[in-house]
Write a structure and sequence with these properties.
The protein has 328 residues and is an alpha/beta fold. It has 13 helices and 9 strands.
């Protein structure tokens, strides 16, 4: 089956194309930027280019997007054009071409204000039952694109899986307080316990969804590393995350102590991937326990795929006060 990957010059897109090529599968990459992983240099906003790219395609993975780092540098209209109109172009052309499976890369950012817990309150337990409350144009347009996916599936029968992925980029955090308070590797290791995903696991989830979508029809899934926490931990996680982590993963204290690392004092949310594991048959490998094992062995915690791709940055320019400007 020939697979179209949009956003093929981006972090996830490159990971997908690399993996598919390695597995000997036929893949075509589409992106506005040229790269060794892009075959068609075009925008998803260009309906004609999308139609031509769909020729002979049996599966689509739509990873192209304007995302959070672009909120302060791109107009709201640009977000609507790319994230909504571009997604509609792909959905309608895929349905017209008889594509058997469509996977849309969404984001946990759609939950937005549903994760805004006050200091000391219980951590928000985020699964598919939580109603999204987007807080910026990125979240709004991704949530709207999800609804388009459901609409087109219902009207045409095109099987669609929506994956709400957590953060997997290697760049430094946009929060200046976090950057100043924690080593970058320390902060990212912490996040694997509640809100981070290795790009290799993201790829596996997308390929699993591509296979499962025809049987599922339509589904939305939270895709993040498997947390060591359970829902009953939420109240204490909002007050004393190190104590809870010490009970759930006792080995972390010694490993962290040797490096002079710290767990965050409290958590505001935990992503629960149980439905994705159950319905997609997805088994993420790079969780917090894996990170600890690799650190204890003196090995890099990220997957070989993540290390091969490295950091791409978000913009063509460099900003003085962080990896990207943050909208107030």
């Amino acid at each position: 089956m020939k697979i179209l990957v949009t956003g093929s010059s981006g972090h996830l897109g490159e990971a997908l194309v690399r993996t598919l090529r390695h597995d000997g599968r036929e893949v075509v990459g589409l992106d506005v930027k040229a790269s060794p992983f892009t075959d068609i240099e075009a925008s998803v906003v260009d309906r004609g280019a999308v139609r031509r790219a769909m020729a002979g395609v049996g599966g689509v993975i739509h990873a192209a997007t304007l995302h959070k780092p672009h909120v302060a540098t791109h107009s709201r209209q640009a977000f609507v054009d790319v994230n909504i109109s571009g997604t509609l172009n792909l959905l309608e052309e895929a349905a017209e071409a008889g594509v058997r499976s469509f996977v849309f890369t969404s984001t946990t950012s759609v939950f937005g204000l549903a994760m805004a817990t006050p200091p000391g309150a219980a951590a928000a337990w985020i699964d598919e039952a939580v109603v999204p409350v987007p807080k910026n144009i990125y979240g709004v347009t991704k949530a709207a694109a999800e609804d388009l996916c459901q609409l087109i599936q219902r009207r045409t029968g095109l099987p669609v899986a929506v994956l709400r992925t957590s953060r997997f980029f290697p760049e430094a955090d946009d929060d200046e307080r976090l950057r100043g308070g924690y080593e970058d590797d320390n902060a990212k290791a912490n996040e694997f316990a509640f809100r981070r995903l290795d790009v290799a696991d993201a790829v596996c989830a997308h390929l699993a969804a591509l296979e499962k979508a025809p049987a599922l029809g339509f589904g939305r899934y939270v895709v993040s590393a498997t947390t060591p926490f359970v829902r009953a931990d939420a109240a204490e996680l909002g007050r004393d995350a190190p104590a809870v982590l010490g009970r759930r993963v006792p080995a972390y204290e010694a490993v962290y102590a040797r490096r002079g690392w710290r767990m965050f004092p409290a958590l505001d949310r935990v992503y629960d991937n149980a439905r994705a594991r159950a319905e997609l048959g997805w088994t993420p490998r790079y969780d917090f326990a894996h990170v600890l094992e690799r650190l204890a062995a003196g090995e890099p915690p990220l997957s070989p795929l993540a290390r091969a791709i490295g950091a791409k940055g978000y913009h063509d320019q460099v900003f003085e006060d962080g990896p990207y400007p943050v909208e107030c």
